Amino acid sequence: MDSFPAFFPLTGRTVVVAGEGDGAEAKARLFAGSPATVLRLAPAEATDSARYAGAALAFVAGGEADFLRAAAAASRAAGVPVNVVDHPELCDFTTPALVDRGEVVVAVGTSGGAPMLASLLRSDLEARIPEGAGRVAALFRSQNEAVRAALPDLAARRAFLAQALRSPAAEAAMAGDMAEAERRLRAALAGAEGTAKGGVTVILVGEASDLLSLRAARALAQADAVVIDPLCPPAVSGMARRDARRLAGAEAAVEGLAALAGAGLSIVWAVAGTEPGGLEALRRSGVRVVILRPAPG
After folding, report:
1. Contact predicate 17/39, CB 8 Å
2. For the segment 8-24, what is each residue's pLDDT rounded down to a tens digit?
3. pTM for this one?
4. For residues 19 and 24, what is the distance between their CA atoms, to the nearest angstrom?
């Protein structure tokens, strides 16, 4: 990872767009409809560091190289990170290609080196992310405190949210009926208090990690804890959430997995080869066990 992606909150913040021309207009349009205040600076003002005071971000565009360097220096003197359009060597950050779904924003960056590739990938993602995704995110944000209060245990909360994202509440939000979505989510939450629904998903990994099914990849990305067979390709471990617990020793034994699943954790057990022993013992312990096999080659 050559560049670290980060999201800047825009509510109550000021974004400076300095300079003129198509590049400056494009950056100003980028924030249309956002909660940020966009401050436009003409070239004569853009080299005065005082004009950038208190801003969260700055963009500089148009003009000769001397102007671009002077405006970027003025922004930095005010402590404001700056992007200089088409000049990555002068930038503190680069602007990714964005998929904007309101509260869901997806960014694709290439460290400023291949913006056309980023745009191409963005087009692919736009086709996959429905317009209503932002409304689903808004629904869950509005109920964050209620969910935390009802399910203080992190594992139980994650299990509930994973199910709720595929529930009628999410479907109602996707369709734009936010009142019905909230009603359904609160009803589901009332029924979930005090429950813990963990389980073990066993992924049988072949020689090629790129043949994992979509379900297997999603299970790895959502797991609270993982057990990775040392014989699995290294890429399998990389698909798991970075903050997922890596289980070993007693925790990775059948008794340990049963205890963690009983506490509400979603566990993925990635195995190279055939089904591991101990699955029947897990089932007898009341643990939900799902087996996912490699996708056809």
Report:
1. yes
2. 999 999 999 999 999 99
3. 0.63
4. 6
